[in-house]
């Protein structure tokens, strides 16, 4: 009580200590310890990343199929056409191209 700690801060610290979803968890912890990022903010970001890591591609696809055309368009606006193309469509096209070349080579 006298040092300003409470259950919420202890739980947030535990989230950071046990985190396995951050690419560089030590950097996040150092940022908190150095006061560049608040403990609660870091824990919130970590929890969001952990929640996202639990979502399967199948679940995301099912959710997408339930959206209205307006929701899909809004998603495209927010994420950006270039990001969707570069990160979701182009890799699939490349895979198919590589497969076609492999089949043609046989």
Topology (SSEs and partners):
Layout: H1 7-18, H2 25-33, H3 39-54, H4 57-66, H5 69-79, H6 81-105
Question: Can you describe what's shown?
Answer:
By secondary structure, this protein is mainly α. The chain has two domains: 1-54, no CATH class; 56-106. Helices cover 78% and strands 0% of the residues. Helix 1 packs across helix 3. The chain is elongated and about 70 Å long. The N and C termini lie far apart (72 Å). The relative contact order is 0.07. The model has no long low-confidence stretch (mean pLDDT 87).
Quickly list its features.
106 residues; mainly alpha; 2 domains
Summarize the structure.
With 106 residues, the chain is mainly α. It has 6 helices and no strands.
Q: What percentage of the residues does DSSP assign to strands (E)?
A: under 5%
Helix share of residues?
over 70%
Task: Give the N-terminus to C-terminus distance in angstroms.
Answer: 72 Å
Net shape:
elongated
Q: How many helix segments?
A: 6
- Integer count of domains: 2
Mean model confidence by pLDDT: 87
């Amino acid at each position: 009580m006298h040092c300003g700690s409470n259950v919420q801060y202890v739980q947030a610290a535990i989230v950071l200590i046990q985190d396995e979803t951050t690419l560089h968890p030590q950097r996040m912890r150092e940022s908190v310890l150095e006061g560049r990022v608040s403990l609660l903010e870091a824990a919130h970001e970590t929890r969001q990343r952990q929640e996202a890591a639990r979502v399967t591609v199948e679940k995301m696809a099912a959710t997408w199929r339930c959206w209205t055309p307006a929701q899909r368009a809004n998603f495209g606006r927010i994420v950006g056409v270039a990001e969707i193309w570069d990160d979701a469509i182009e890799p699939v096209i490349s895979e198919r191209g590589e497969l076609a070349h492999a089949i043609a080579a046989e």
